[in-house]
Amino acid sequence: MDIDSVLDRQVWNMLHGRLAHLAQGTDGAKRIDPRYGPFAASRDRGEEAQAALAALFDGPDDRLWLVEPEAAPCPPGAQIMRTAELVQMVADGEPPEDDVIDPAVVALGEADAAEMAEIALATEPGPWGTLAHRYGQFYGIRMEGRLAAMAGERMLPAPGLAEVSGVCTWPEYRGQGLARRLIRRVMAGQRARGDVPYLHSYAHNAGAIELYQSLGFRPRRTMWVTVLARA
Fold this sequence. Notes:
Radius of gyration: 17 Å
Largest sheet: 8 strands, mixed
Shape: globular
CATH class of the largest domain: Alpha Beta
């Protein structure tokens, strides 16, 4: 597997591979089921594919998020709401020998969906849909009965690759190392099934990037997120 070519077009690849059952659209452009989130990709930047991309909006308030090596162009009938620079990072080195299971980290499921949505929408680690908790396995740490922090996985662009995502902590519980413990658990599960973990950080978030590097992630390349709305 050529990791670089897969991760350069991760959304397009996931919608034609491991998450193809959640894809909507045509040969020119596809998006994930809106209940899972707003990610979309076009086949290329040609006129036909861009028209197909603009046809994917699910109502006037819908948004499409494109994650590509360069900021995406604006297709006819759409408008660019914002762009942001990302750092894409991959943990393809040797896992730590002391990667033990943390007993305070618990698996989350359907019964936790409302709490997961609440923390994700409040802290905005990335876009969150009503079924985003079903992307893959999420884990949480509870403090005084409350879901204080969580992390999980999202994009599966090819066999052998899985994205760490949804990393978030309520402000009052930050500074206690909860994110580190949760990310380690997500990574351990991914590696156990043969996947190499990868993730994204906003390029300006130096603290997050430093944390990810301490967990074995290396910067792979700059990516850009482009958020589109219907014009």
